[in-house]
Amino acid sequence: MNTVTLIVLLLFGMGLGYLLRYYLAQASAARGEIDGKRIRILAEEEAQTIIREAVDKAEKTIDDARAIATKREDEAKEMTDRLAKREEFIDTRQRDLDRDIEKLKSSTVEVAEIRTKATEALESRTKELERVANLSREQARDEVMLLAEKQYGEDIQIKLRKLEESGTEKYQDRARDILMSIIQRLASSTASDTTTTLVHIPNEDIKGKIIGKEGRNIKSFERAAGVELIIDDTPNGIIISSFDPVRRQIARLALENLILDGRIQPAKIEEFVDKAKIDINSIIKEKGEQAVHELGIYNFDPRLIAIVGRLFFRTSYGQNVLQHSIEMAHLAEMLAYEVGADPYIAKCGALVHDIGKALDHEVEGSHVIIGMKILEKFNTDPRVITAMKSHHDDWPHETPEAVIVQVCDMISGSRPGARRDSLENYLKRLGDLEAVATGFDGVAAAYALSAGREVRVFVRPQDIDDFGARIMARNIADKISQELRFPGEIKVTLIRENRVIEFAR
Questions:
Q1: Residue 415 and residue 182: Cα distance in Å, rounded?
Q2: CB 408 within 8 A of CB 415
Q3: Could you tell me which residue, 85 or 421, shows the higher pLDDT?
Q4: 3-state class of 495 per DSSP?
Q5: Distance CA 84, CA 92 (A)
Q6: pTM of the entire structure?
Q7: CA 233/CA 242 separation, integer angstroms
Q8: What is the C-alpha to C-alpha distance for residues 372 and 375, in angstroms, rounded to an integer?
Q9: pLDDT tens per residue, range 358-391
Q10: How many angstroms separate the CA atoms of 100 and 97, rounded?
C-alpha cells in the first residue's frame, strides 16, 4: 500500500512539475517577444533620428557648397575683368612702344647720316688743311708739341712741380705723422744682436782636452753635434763653425757644459750633446710660444710656432730675426688700425714674414718662397700668406696688409743701430747706386752720399735742359726702386749748372 501510494505521488509530482515548466516556458517566450518588439521600436526610432540628422547635414553641406560656388564665380568674374583691363593696358603700352621704336629708328638713321656727313666734312677739312700746310696730322701734332715745349717748357715744369707738391705734401705730412706716432708708441730697443760662435775657455789647457788623444774627443764632438770646431791660436777661445744656427747653439751649450764638468770624453760628449739638444728645443718652443702670446695670436699650428721660435737663433745683418718680427708685428697692428686695414692679418703677416729664414739653410729657394710653402703646409689663412709674400717686392701688393708689412719691415730694419752691414756689401751697394745713375745719357758724374741714402748726379748742361733734367731725376729714382734693394728711401739730387770761363790777358 505504501509503495503504491509513493508511486502515485511520484507520478503526480512529475505531472505537476511538467505543467509548471510548461507555463514558465510560455511566460518566458511572451516576455522575449515583448522585449524584441521594444528593441525593434527603439531601433526604428534611432534610425529615424539618424536619417533626419543626415538629411539636415546634407542640406547644410549643399548650402555651403552653393555659397562657395557663388563666391568663386564672383572672384572668377572679377579676375576676368581685371585681366581684360590689363590686357587692354598692355595692348595700349605695346602700341606706344612700337611707335617710340619707329621714332628711334628714324632718329638713328638721321643721326647716322649726320655723323657720316660730319666725318666726311672733317676729313675733307683735314685734307684741305694738310694740303695748305703741306703737313700730315701727325707732323702737325709733333710741330705743335715741340713748339709748346720750347715756348712753355719752363712754365709747364713749374706747373707740374706745383701740382706735385700740392698734391703730395698733404699726404706726406699725414703719412709722416702716422709713422712717427707709431714708432714713438713702440719705442723698442734697436741694439744689434749676433749669434755667438766663440766659446770662451778659462785656460789654454782646455784645448788639449777637447782635442783628446789622437783627436778622438774633437771627432766625437763634431760627429755628435754636426758642427766643426776650429781650435787655433785664438787666445782663450774656440770657434764653432756651422751653417745651421740651431746646431751652432747646441754645440755651444754642450761645449760650455763639458768645460764646466771637466770630464771630456766620447761618452760624456754624446750625453751632453743630447742634453743640449733637449734644452735648445725647449728654448725654441718657449720663444715661439712667448712670441705668439705677446702678440695675442692663438690660431697657429704648434709646429708653426716651433719654427717661429727657431728665428731666435737667426740673425740678419746683426739684427735678431725673432725680435725684428715681433717688433714688426706690433708696428703692423698699430698701423693697420690707423689706415683701416685688418690688424690681426697684418700682425700675423708681419710675424711670419721671415719664417723662411729658419729653414733657408736646409731648403732650396729664397726665404720668401720657403716661408710661403711652410705656411701653406700648416693651413695658414691665405690672407696672411698674401700679406707676407710681398715684403721684398717679389709679388705685387694685393692687399693693404701687404703694404703695411713692407712698410714695417723698412721701419724696423732702418732704425739707427738696428742693422749693420759688412764693408764688402756696403761698398757694393754704393757702387751699384752710382752705376745706375751713370747709366743715363748726359750724366757727367754721380756720387753716393750719406751712407747710401742720397745719390748726387751731375749732368752736362749742353746735353740736358731744365725740363729734361727733371724727367731724368724721376727716371733715375724709378730705376733705383726697380733694380736695387734698400731700406727706407734714397734721395736723388740732380744738378745742372752752366759754367762760363774766360781769361783776361
A1: 13
A2: no
A3: 85
A4: strand
A5: 12
A6: 0.50
A7: 20
A8: 5
A9: 776 666 777 888 888 888 888 888 898 888 888 7
A10: 5
Got the DSSP string for 398-451?
Answer: -SHHHHHHHHHHHHHHHSTTT----HHHHHHHHHHHHHHHHTSTTEEEEEEEGG
- Look-up of cell digits 729657394: 365
**Grid cell in block for residue 421:** 752691414
* 301-335 core/surface letters (b: 16 or more CB in 10 A; e: else): eeebbbbbbbbbbbbeebbbbbbbbbbbbbbbbbb
Residue 319 per-residue DSSP state: E
Give the integer Cα–Cα distance in Å for 11 and 370.
Answer: 132
What share of the chain in percent tops pLDDT 70?
A: 80
Q: Which three cell numbers stand for residue 337?
A: 688700425
Question: What is the rounded distance in angstroms from the CA atom of residue 255 to the CA atom of residue 250?
Answer: 8
Residues 6 or more apart whose CB falls under 8 angstroms from that of 410 comprise 487, 488
Q: Is 33 left (phi over 0), alpha (psi -120 to 50) or beta?
A: alpha
pLDDT digits (tens, 9 = 90+) for 48-90: 888 888 888 888 888 888 888 888 888 888 888 888 888 888 8
Say if residues 345 and 337 touch (Cβ distance below 8 Å): no
Q: What's the rounded Cα separation, in Å, for the pair 218 and 206?
A: 12
Query: Which are the contacts of 378, defined by CB distance < 8 A and separation ≥ 6?
Result: 300, 301, 303, 304
Q: Show Cβ contacts of residue 408 under 8 Å, excluding neighbours closer than 6 positions.
A: 328, 331, 332, 335, 350
Written as nine digits, the cell of 240 is 764653432
Residue 454 DSSP class: E
Half-sphere exposure of 159 (CA within 13 A, CB side): 5
Residues near 62 by beta carbon (within 8 Å), at least 6 away in sequence: none
